[in-house]
């Protein structure tokens, strides 16, 4: 069997006693040898269950280190790993199970109702101890183009789409990440990102395990506990989304600690407010943001922290084995600082949408992936993500990019969080609309508009402003703008 499927076992042979995984909630830690032992147990169990190549193994569980044993057992055995977003509604989960038709459903006890309503699927509790597995592997004729992951995205607009990700795509994302971010076996990451999401699996966890480092897994994000864990486990590199960072920088522990082992903090999932850059820069901490999506990577760009500090908002240049281009509406390459749609190419791009060639054809053409995101490139070749094409506001014939307005409003000292969207208007077509979470019950509309006049053109100033107690969030903690329109 090629190492593209079984590299985790090679890693075990090299450093069997190195700590691979730490589970904060259960206080368990696995060496690479223990991880491999658990992988063999699941492989033996899958064989007894009669699984065949390309059968789907669906898993519904909160973050725990056992998920990695199942993930790698699926990879080695030639089965497709389907992590379920347990935060979805029961109707959405039932749809996904009907769509992917798994042969086996592995579950935590708290999700027994999903199992009961899908009794036609063989099910197994994740907590149940498995017998020791033999260290022999059946070769199911796997190749690098075969599917390893099936991750469902969306669910907020229309039906969730299953993103088919091959061994090649997973591994090339890891290669890119290891090379571009200089990862080594000395690295340790703290991961609160859900393991049903590509950010939880592919952003850092799989690359760090490939290179022999340590992944610390937590179930429920708490800013105070996160800061303590970053120091307790001597982490070196970790990823959080901007809403998590907003909570972290407000804690007393963040103000007190120097994070002596951390090389860099990474932000992803959505554009990062400049206030977060400020908080890290004031403490002399390295901070940078990236850009990715389930269909590509999710790691696509590399930027040195020193450059990131000078070019706030830039994600840098394409990683070593990626290609990008920015095209205008007519399909021509954009000039410097001209905004267009971002396209990505590389071995890390997904294969297809599960049983949905029509949607696949809309985003993949001639080896390039249409991201649906707007971007621009500066004179040095560094890329800036502007926002989703669908989120661009057209008001009175003028284009307004919500991120620009958000970055302005968030600098107001009495604003905690902000989201800007376009809402329908009979006269203007759309108007710029801001939803704001104020500090200490702040709710002065005129003050916000006056603040914006100092930095923005008149047509970009929000005509409608709503102060809210909280902004809706997605399952990974990003602001969910679809629920604001």
Write a structural description.
The structure is a single chain. This protein is of the alpha/beta class and 485 residues long. Among the domains are: 3-180, 3-Layer(aba) Sandwich (Rossmann fold); 392-484, ANL, C-terminal domain (GMP Synthetase, Chain A, domain 3, 2-Layer Sandwich), CATH 3.30.300.30. α2 (32-48) crosses α3. The strands form 7 sheets. Strands 14, 15, 16, 17, 19, 20 and 21 form a 7-stranded antiparallel β-sheet that branches. The mean pLDDT is 94. α16 links the parallel β25 and β26. The longest helix is centred in the first third of the chain and has 17 residues, at 32-48.
What is the strand and helix layout of this fold?
Layout: H1 3-14, E1 19-23, E2 28-31, H2 32-48, E3 56-60, H3 66-77, E4 80-83, H4 90-100, E5 104-107, H5 112-116, E6 122-125, E7 147-153, E8 161-166, H6 167-180, E9 188-191, H7 198-203, H8 205-211, E10 214-217, H9 223-232, E11 237-240, H10 242-248, H11 252-256, E12 264-267, H12 274-282, E13 287-289, E14 301-302, H13 305-310, E15 314-318, E16 322-327, E17 340-346, E18 352-353, H14 357-363, E19 364-365, E20 368-377, E21 383-388, E22 393-395, E23 398-400, H15 402-409, E24 415-425, E25 429-438, H16 445-453, E26 464-467
Parallel strand pairs: 1-10, 3-4, 3-5, 5-6, 9-10, 11-12, 12-13, 25-26
Antiparallel strand pairs: 1-2, 7-8, 8-18, 14-15, 15-21, 16-17, 17-20, 19-20, 20-21, 22-23, 24-25
Helix pairs in contact: 1-2, 2-3, 6-8, 9-10
